[in-house]
Amino acid sequence: MPVVRTGPVRVSGYAIKLRRVINAVLRDRYKSGELDAKLVNKLISELNARIYQVLVEKFEVPKEAVANIVVDFDVEDGKMIINDIQIEVFDKDEILSENATKEVKRLIEKMPITIQETSGEKQEEQGQEKE
Question: How many domains does the chain have?
Answer without folding.
Answer: 2
